[in-house]
Design a protein that fits this description.
The protein is α/β, with parallel strands linked by helices and 385 residues long. It folds into two domains: 234 residues, Crotonobetainyl-coa:carnitine coa-transferase, domain 1 (Rossmann fold, 3-Layer(aba) Sandwich); 82 residues, 2-Layer Sandwich (formyl-coa transferase, domain 3), CATH 3.30.1540. The protein is 39% helix and 12% strand. Strands 5-2-1-6-7-8 form a six-stranded parallel beta sheet, sandwiched between helices. Strand 9 and strand 10 form a beta hairpin. The chain is elongated.
Length: 385
């Protein structure tokens, strides 16, 4: 059995939008589940409208919606809601990311779904949870980065507060959602019962910051802005070479003397300011200045080869285009048919269907539910599908 045959026969309804929920549903789709993406008219998933575009489709949408079929359906209408519940009757999983209160307003709650299908597994994704406080706080990835404290130690001391550029809270919440649903599937195989999981971006944020959080609790000091530096290791960070930038990472006591000898800075080894990792962290600035003065004299490639031969972890700071051209990227088969595969196995066969156009499968899906051509035309109107 291959990766793409892990979840044969599993039926997933994706009512979510943006990134977290669609990514979770895509993971299940890559593993072989049948995923129907239910999109509201007239424009569908919010990310379909975002630039830039690739062959007419938004790249954000394309990145998290492969291996799905698109059904354009107005679930706020009586007819659309009735069609949705006909789908729920035979579904295994439903994923939603409604704004606070919308699920209750529409009657699409866990209680309603369980009454329709006693074995349904539901994932409700939110920014701050569904508690009395959290459900009043809608939000996006960047907002949760700010509120959670994640942005407070990102960047350099002399720069304004900045966010982590990739949507790490959306994507990590999508992964937790998929893992939570896989665990729920295993439990249901024994219990036969419905289950509701409720992942949130704020939970993901604190999980992503686990060692910074514990360090703060242990020391009483919040994390500092260290640029490319690390809070628990030095020297560690980006240094300017004569033709670009080089990241050097030393994370053990054994590596420091090797680095010093390779750089011709043997005197630093016995310098009382740098004898232990704790000493080096306390005197990070003079240490970095001494190393920077030497690194600047040669090219990145010179230092990459020279330090690499001494067993020091280092590498060029690439832009994304240069990184994509690296031989190791081709070796790992990371990009397939303009899609980034899941980071599980380079031989995974998850890329089977391209992301759907809006409403591409509406008539097919509704026809399978038993709707007549006239009823389908009423439900989909003049939209594609």
């Amino acid at each position: 059995m291959t990766f793409g045959q892990t979840l044969p026969g599993l039926k997933v309804l994706d009512l979510s939008t943006n990134i977290a929920g669609p990514f979770a549903a895509m993971i299940l789709g890559d593993m072989g589940a049948e995923v129907i993406k239910i999109e509201r008219p007239p424009h569908g998933d919010d990310t379909r409208a975002l630039p830039p575009r690739w062959e007419g489709e938004a790249t954000v949408f394309l990145s998290v919606n492969r291996n799905k079929r698109s059904l354009l359906l107005d679930i706020k209408s009586l007819e659309g809601k009735a069609a949705l519940f006909r789908l729920i009757e035979t579904a295994d999983v439903i994923i939603e990311s409604f704004p606070p209160g919308l699920g209750e307003k529409l009657g699409i709650t866990f209680g309603a779904l369980r009454a329709c299908n006693p074995r349904i597994l539901m994932a409700s994704i939110s920014a701050f949870g569904d508690g009395p406080i959290g459900k009043t706080m809608p939000g996006y990835d960047a907002l949760v980065q700010a509120v959670s404290g994640m942005m407070s130690f990102n960047g350099s001391p002399d720069t304004p507060t900045i966010r982590v550029a990739p949507s790490i809270l959306d994507l990590s919440t999508g992964m937790w959602t998929a893992m939570g649903l896989l665990a729920a599937i295993l439990r249901r195989n024994t219990s036969g019962e419905a289950e509701h999981i409720r992942p949130s971006l704020i939970d993901s944020a604190f999980t992503m910051m686990n060692h910074q959080l514990l360090s703060m609790l242990a020391t009483g000091q919040p994390p500092e802005k260290l640029g490319s530096g690390a809070p628990s290791a030095a020297p560690y960070g980006v240094f300017k070479a004569s033709d670009g930038e080089l990241l050097i990472a030393t994370a053990s006591e054994q590596q420091f003397p090797r680095l010093c000898k390779a750089l011709g800075l043997d005197t630093l080894i016995e310098d009382v300011r740098f004898r232990t990792m704790a000493d080096r962290l306390q005197h990070r600035e003079p240490l970095d200045l001494a190393i920077a003065a030497v690194i600047n004299l040669q090219t990145v490639e010179h230092w990459r080869a020279h330090l690499g031969s001494a067993g020091i972890s280092c590498g060029r700071v690439n832009d994304l285009a240069d990184a994509l051209a690296l031989p190791v990227v081709a070796e790992r088969c990371l990009l397939k048919e303009m899609q980034v595969r899941l980071p599980i196995d380079p031989d995974s066969d998850g890329l089977r269907k391209p992301p759907p156009t809006l409403g591409e499968h509406s008539r097919e899906i509704l026809g399978r539910l038993g709707y007549s051509e006239a009823e389908i035309s009423t439900l989909v109107g003049n939209t594609r599908g």
